[in-house]
Amino acid sequence: LAFIHIVSLLCHTLAVWVLLNHIRPHSSFSTAYLTLTTSLVIGYFLPGRLGLPVRVYLYHRLFELTVGAASGLVGLELAVATLIPFIFSIPGLWIFYSNPWFFGSVLFLIFLSLLLVLIVYLLRHDGAKIGWILKTRRLLSPLYSFAEGLGQMLKLLNLWTLGLFSLLCFLVLLCSVWFSKVLLLHLGWPVS
Predict the structure, then answer these.
(1) DSSP assignment, residue 192?
(2) Among 170, 113, 185, CA closest to 105
(3) What pLDDT score does 109 carry?
(4) Which of 7, 107, 117, 131 has its CA 20 to 30 A from that of 123?
């Protein structure tokens, strides 16, 4: 089990390093590893998701990113890491829970995913208009820095880098599934 966890951590670190190295060339793998493990350990032991603001702070301090760009990068990491399991879970959930309520929920989640893709496209190609809307609305102004940082990250990253990052996130997901299966088999639970 320790081997699977180490492989998962290495894939996760490599995924983060791929993004950081594209944004800040000559970023070291060891610094990416320390940044990731520090935020993960804090996230494991403190309530809520307090490891994420720590990762934003460490990206800001160690990799000299603006706070908006660092939060945009963490947001991008979370979006990809959440979208991959969602995409792969739809067929299985469809097979096991094929009822009208579930169908409506899936359509709503697909709509939200398409809306997210549209927002990402607009941030990548026409971020000034969205920034102007967020900046002029007082309630939405805290989102402006995040949206601006996310737009910066999307402009800096190319499709090859995002594809490699997504592939590494998929490998982390596979390691998690493998870990769960080995653990359940070890405990004597029947797993197919």
Answers:
(1) -
(2) 113
(3) 73
(4) 107
Phi and psi angles of residue 137, each rounded to the nearest 5 degrees, phi first: -95, 120
Calculate ∠ Cα 184-190-192, nearest 5°: 95
Percentage with pLDDT > 70 across the chain: 75
**pLDDT tens for residues 95-145?**
666 666 666 677 777 777 777 667 666 666 655 555 555 555 555 555 666
Only one residue has tokens 């096991």, namely 96
- CB neighbour class for 149 (10 Å; exposed up to 12, middle 13-18, buried from 19): buried
Q: Which two tokens stand for residue 25?
A: 């060339």
Amino acid at 82: T
In this structure, the number of other CB atoms found within 10 A of the CB of residue 172 comes to 19
- The parts of the chain modelled with pLDDT lower than 50 are none
Q: Residue 132: what residue type?
A: W
